[in-house]
Design a protein that fits this description.
Helices cover 42% and strands 17% of the residues. It is of the alpha+beta class and 466 residues long. The relative contact order is 0.13.
């Protein structure tokens, strides 16, 4: 093990104790960033600024200043999350020079505890897609095969962590963007209960679904940041899963799985049973129809209204924003929605007050009626596919829309606002990672992270002994 392999928790421990200087740690990370430059991870990486921030933290320690709970932790920040020291481009042309006045509140809480921004990561343009094939800044490449997608929209953040450029990253999640890239890149990704971290300071898509999410190589690192940002901790960790009840909803979440995804999922379920978990075979009544009824209509309406409101904080109007777009799968939908809105205001109001509550209640009933701690399923129904397949991908020999293929399992929880965490569960024969997701009831964040932590640690022990 080298310093490059340090987890976020280990990094903080060494730097808070004074065993490792922040500047010395950057001396380890920066060559890695340069060596992996071809993966196109960062939109903005300012070595001088990163070193200046590290030097300031080292001086703070040397002069007897307080070292926060995240002292010296470098964080890769998705470039649709506002930063006052760096431009926030959203991965689009018109915002290339946009410099917000403030940091996003979630990020500021990390900085207040001694973290520092390492750089701003590449993403699917305006976070409006799932491949991170960005028409303005170029595609993010999968670290396990650079010809493949990294997933989106938080592709750069996931690759930064997967390649040890950064021990921790933050992204956003509207339909799976903090879980799909981690699943396809072989790391951990967490979407919290809606409102737990908020979406303030992030370029919006849909305020009903948008949230900041986190990424690391271990669940323990996700837990650390969650405890620090939320201001509490000390929860007793689980050592096994005895008494834990996990829902296995075969309908929808296990439909049309790629062969290798299905096999890896079966192996994961077997391990969970060996750890003492009770697998409850039960479906969520009417889930597919309920999810479809609210998914795109709400997002399509809010994509325009939320962006219009956000643009008021900049010097841009919608026409200028669209003129700067370079990704056809982003520019086309925005132009279409501006020309002909597909959802009326009255329809939107009905979706929020009558239709979406039915989806939320279906999830509540599911967890309550079956007394579930969480539900478990493959994060995506297929592994990474080649860069450029932005419109359709083949799943079990049939073409289907790329976006719908990848968000198939992550979108329902996004629409209902419940928490979800993805952890590595295996590799394909071609060496591409696969993810396993645990979703929990509202405010079940701590519990699903505990469950995921046990699974990841046990799987790691098994792999290391082979």
């Amino acid at each position: 093990m080298t310093l490059l392999d340090l987890t976020a928790a280990e990094t903080v421990k060494f730097m808070r104790s004074g065993d490792l200087k922040v500047s010395d740690y950057l001396d380890i990370l920066i060559p890695q960033i340069k060596a992996k430059e071809s993966l196109n991870v960062f939109i903005t990486f300012d070595e001088d600024m990163a070193r200046a921030h590290a030097a300031a933290l080292d001086h703070q320690r040397a002069s007897g200043g307080e070292c926060g709970l995240l002292f010296g932790l470098p964080v890769a920040v998705k470039d649709n999350i506002e930063t006052s020291d760096y431009v926030t481009t959203g991965g689009t042309g018109a915002l290339k020079n946009y410099r917000p006045a403030h940091n996003a509140p979630f990020l500021q809480k990390m900085l207040d505890q001694g973290a520092l921004v390492l750089g701003k990561t590449n993403l699917h343009e305006l976070a409006m897609g799932i491949t991170s094939n960005n028409g303005v800044f170029g595609p993010v490449h999968n670290p396990h095969n650079p010809d493949m997608i990294a997933g989106g929209s938080s592709g750069g953040s996931a690759v930064a962590v997967a390649t040890h450029m950064s021990p921790f990253a933050i992204g956003t999640d509207t339909g799976g963007s903090a879980r799909i890239p981690p699943a396809l890149c072989g790391i951990v990704g967490f979407r919290p209960t809606m409102g737990r971290y908020g979406s303030e300071g992030a370029i919006p898509i849909s305020h009903t679904r948008d949230t900041i999410g986190t990424m690391a190589r271990t669940v323990a690192d996700i837990q650390l940041i969650d405890q620090v940002v939320m201001g509490f901790g000390g929860d007793k960790p689980l050592t096994d899963l005895k008494g834990v009840r996990l829902g296995v909803a075969r309908q929808h979440f296990y439909d049309n799985l790629d062969r290798e995804v299905a096999q890896a999922t079966d192996d994961a379920l077997k391990l969970l049973k060996e750890l003492g978990a009770e697998l409850i075979e039960a479906d969520i009544a009417g889930l597919a129809a309920l999810n479809e009824a609210v998914s795109m209509p709400i997002c399509l309406y809010e994509a325009i209204t939320d962006m219009e409101k956000y643009l008021e904080t900049t010097d841009l109007d919608f026409d200028q924003l669209i003129a700067g777009m370079g990704s056809p799968d982003v520019k086309g939908p925005y132009q279409m929605l501006l020309a002909d809105p597909l959802v009326t205001k009255s329809d939107y109001r009905e979706l929020l007050t009558e239709v979406r509550p039915k989806l939320l209640q279906a999830y509540r009933n599911y967890f309550q009626n079956y007394q579930l701690d969480a539900m478990v399923f493959p994060t995506t129904i297929l592994p990474a596919r080649p860069i450029g397949q932005d419109e359709t991908v083949a799943v079990n020999g049939a073409e289907m829309p790329t976006l719908q293929a990848y968000i198939h399992n992550t979108e329902p929880s996004s629409n209902s606002g419940i928490p979800g965490v993805t952890v590595p569960m295996g590799m394909t024969e071609a060496g591409l990672p696969l993810g396993l997701e645990f979703d929990g009831p509202e405010q079940g964040d701590v519990r699903i992270l505990q469950i995921a932590d046990v699974y990841q640690k046990t799987r790691g022990q098994i792999l290391s002994s082979q």
